[in-house]
Amino acid sequence: MFRRRTALSVSATAALLAAAPLLAACGSDAHPGAAAVVDGKRITVAQLQAKVKDVREAQGKSPQGTQLIMNTGRLSLATLNGMIFDEVLARAAEDAGVTVTRDDIQKWRATAERRAGGAERLKGMWLQQGIAPDEIDAMVRNQLLLDGLAKHLGADRGRPQGQQQLAQALSKTSRSMGIDVNPRFGKWDDQQVILGETKEPWITTERAAGRQRV
């Protein structure tokens, strides 16, 4: 799933890290320190901060680091959106009996790398979307889970009706998980399966693979 996250000078690196959203380690009164609670499982602010830092540090090593930072200014919200969606998708896939093996991930990634023109170019494309290199396999796994879930439902992801079937299944799972987001990050929309403040679709364009999937 492509959401759907080469060095700079020391001063530039410091500037880009400063540009990263500052996330205070506080949560709602009911869940202190949590950015969100999904099916009783806490996604802590510290975990969110770590993922944001990982992306920013990777972007900072790119010659296009400054531009990458500018293009992913709301990285904390997009990252939290992805972390919550990961949980929803994993549950929906588990309930449907959909599994993905390490071999599946490696084969899919190898194909994507060939289409992108190499492993480094693929990493760069993902980084443009706020995905750190060490998160790529997780994103590939999500893509395969979506494909498997769509197949289980008999939904053609290339057609509006199929997209709607898949969205409805994910929405149903989302509602069952009692997702509670710290108000400072927005509100989770079970119907759209998205963190409202991000205004981003839950299924993104696979630009890195050189093709579109919805």
N to C succession of SSEs: HEEHHHHHHHEEE
Shape verdict: globular
Broad structural category: mainly alpha
The biggest sheet amounts to:
3 strands, antiparallel
The DSSP helix count reads: 8
N-end to C-end Cα span: 9 Å
Low-confidence stretches: 1-28, 200-214
As a whole number of angstroms, the C-alpha radius of gyration is 17 Å
Q: What is the average per-residue confidence, as pLDDT, rounded to a whole number?
A: 81
Topology diagram in text:
Blueprint: H1 10-19, E1 34-38, E2 41-44, H2 45-60, H3 65-71, H4 75-96, H5 102-116, H6 119-128, H7 136-153, H8 160-176, E3 180-181, E4 188-189, E5 194-195
Antiparallel strand pairs: 1-2, 1-3, 4-5
Helix pairs in contact: 1-2, 2-3, 2-4, 4-7, 4-8, 5-6, 5-7, 7-8
Structure description:
β4 and β5 form a beta hairpin. The protein has 214 residues and is mostly helical. The longest helix has 22 residues. It has a 3-stranded antiparallel sheet. α2 crosses α4 and α5 crosses α6. It is globular and about 45 Å long.
Labels describing this entry:
disordered C terminus; mainly alpha; single chain; 214 residues; 5 strands; three-stranded antiparallel β-sheet; 8 helices
Summarize, please.
By secondary structure, this protein is mostly helical.
